[in-house]
Amino acid sequence: MSQLSNILTQFTRGVMNRGQRGLYGGKQIIFGNTICFSNKKSRRNWKPNVQSKTYHSDILDTDLRVKVTCHTIRCIDKAGNFDNYIMKTSHKNLSSELGSDLKNTMKMALQHKAQLILFKED
């Protein structure tokens, strides 16, 4: 039942396809009205402030060029570095395929490094 509710919330919230290719930190397109002096209302939308940044991943030992929102940039700074942000943020809060894929790849890389260390000790 919970899986069905997750799917329904994604459709009602309007998950952006371009948001799946970057780290948007839950930010979505917001819709509303602009109101002029004569009180006429015109529909408009506010898109997230998306920047393209390059982050270095110590776990993967590569530079990654990622589209991120300014909110996510502040979250990465608060976490300390890019790897800490990806590893400590839940899949729900990452809310993108890119974030989930990066998290899984980093976990596999850490497991591989741990196995190499154990193999060297033996």
From TrEMBL:
<dbReference type="InterPro" id="IPR026569">
    <property type="entry name" value="Ribosomal_bL28"/>
</dbReference>
<dbReference type="GO" id="GO:0003735">
    <property type="term" value="F:structural constituent of ribosome"/>
</dbReference>
<keyword id="KW-0689">Ribosomal protein</keyword>
<dbReference type="Pfam" id="PF00830">
    <property type="entry name" value="Ribosomal_L28"/>
</dbReference>
<keyword id="KW-0687">Ribonucleoprotein</keyword>
<comment type="similarity">
    <text>Belongs to the bacterial ribosomal protein bL28 family.</text>
</comment>
<dbReference type="InterPro" id="IPR034704">
    <property type="entry name" value="Ribosomal_bL28/bL31-like_sf"/>
</dbReference>
<protein>
    <recommendedName>
        <fullName>Large ribosomal subunit protein bL28m</fullName>
    </recommendedName>
</protein>
<dbReference type="InterPro" id="IPR037147">
    <property type="entry name" value="Ribosomal_bL28_sf"/>
</dbReference>
<dbReference type="GO" id="GO:0005762">
    <property type="term" value="C:mitochondrial large ribosomal subunit"/>
</dbReference>
